[in-house]
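Example 3.2
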Amino acid sequence: MTELQQDLIGTQIAGRFKIIDLLGEGGAGQVYLAEHAVLDRKFAIKVLQHNVQDDQRFVERFRREARMASLLEHPNIVRITDFGRTPEGRLYLVMEHVSGESLEQLMETVRPAPLAMERAIPIMAQVCSAVQAAHAEGIVHRDLKPDNVVLGRTLSGDEQVKILDFGLAKIMAGAKSDTALHITGKGEIFGTPEYMAPEQARGEPVDARADIYSLAAMAYDLLGGRPPIEHDTLGEQLRAIQLEMPVPLSRLRPPSEPLLPVELEVLVHRCLLKDPDQRPSSVDGLVKVFEAHRTLHPQRRHTSLPGIEVEAILRDTDPAEAARGQDSAPPTATELDTYRDEPDTLIPGTAGRVGTVENKAWCWSQAVKRAQVLVARLASIDLAPEPLTETHSRQRKGAEQMVTVETELAVERANLDEPNTAEQEVEVRLRKAIMDLSMERDQREDEGPDDLEDLDYQIRVLETNLNEVYRQTLQRQTNQEETVREMETYAGLCEKQLRDAEAQLIKEVFAARPAPCPQDLAQVYGDLANTLRTYDTAEK
């Protein structure tokens, strides 16, 4: 670290932000971690570079753009909460601090493979939603890239995207000549070539369509394992952005990966067209497509599965041995997801990839369904013993209870992330008032010596009130989290009871196998045995 960077650590900014550590640096300046003296929370402070602090025109533009960016209220945009200048005259922005890795750090761990589609699509859905909200307020990012996307978590544990630096790229561009091309290397504020629109690379004025290109380039990177245009040197990269067309995503993805939805691939490539007039004029289409496919890739809950001894169940009543003893052909293995019985006993579902936890859970669910089919068949010919029907009834009630508990738990988890409207409105008003007073204080300092004690007092009062709002919100969230934990414990107990009932049902179904066994029943018993063996060999 430079001497100045070292000097800032341990100091206070604006008398209330104590600098703890340096989080990172780039072309715009440095980002520090800070603690607020009144508000019991951490913030990130971006201290801008030296060469703009004496440019009064830039300072005024900075105030205006910082104010506009601070008005963005979206769950996927990092909020700007304060602004000012250090004693050395360096401009700074105070932002909420998000703990988590950047999207670029995540991609570095998987490239050249693509990110799993069930994770990539929800991430892009959130990024596009945030950009859509900013464009609606007339704010263009101008530097969308994986480095500017942080992956955090909601209170319910779901992955939440946060986009950094909305408005800051425009602010920094205003500090330079409008005709110059400002690229200082990957990861810096004036543009990252891999995700930069062709018109931006030419140094032309840009609008929302440049952000649309960058969004598509990020989507291409996540779903293809590399950016759409990638060369070793800056000169080659800038030329290629103007001339090269990216390889179709469907050809780039490994054969082992699921196929991309056609409409998604087509839209991404349309957004990567060189001529901005040929791209979509708004982000709405990207939001619609990613949100539509986001629901097809829910975050899977790892189900607890019983550790039953499959061979022990089958040892005394192996369907193949029994079939041979009856001089009938042994049942053959069937494709589990193409099993067909009567229409009312059709077993739906799509198997997870072989050798995965999802595949094991799917095999178990199919085994339970086939056991239920056998119970119904045995009952229809009066061969279902009373203990078997009682176990079946207990299993059905357990399944119904599990649906109810999971539904209630899902509602409570959703409530964790649902903001309290009244609290949110008060918080927004207080933060905007603090921002306005901070700007007024900075302007008075520019105009000359003045008594700033009254303004400082007003800011402290507002911050105290804001801290009380934060405290109340935290208490409400703590109570909700405790409720969710209690419900999760209860759901785990219900799930264990259900799995025990399912395992008992399967054992009793085999024990009730009639001898001799009709051919159609022998086939279903064989299917159940094959399903259990597949379950037993799937990944634990």
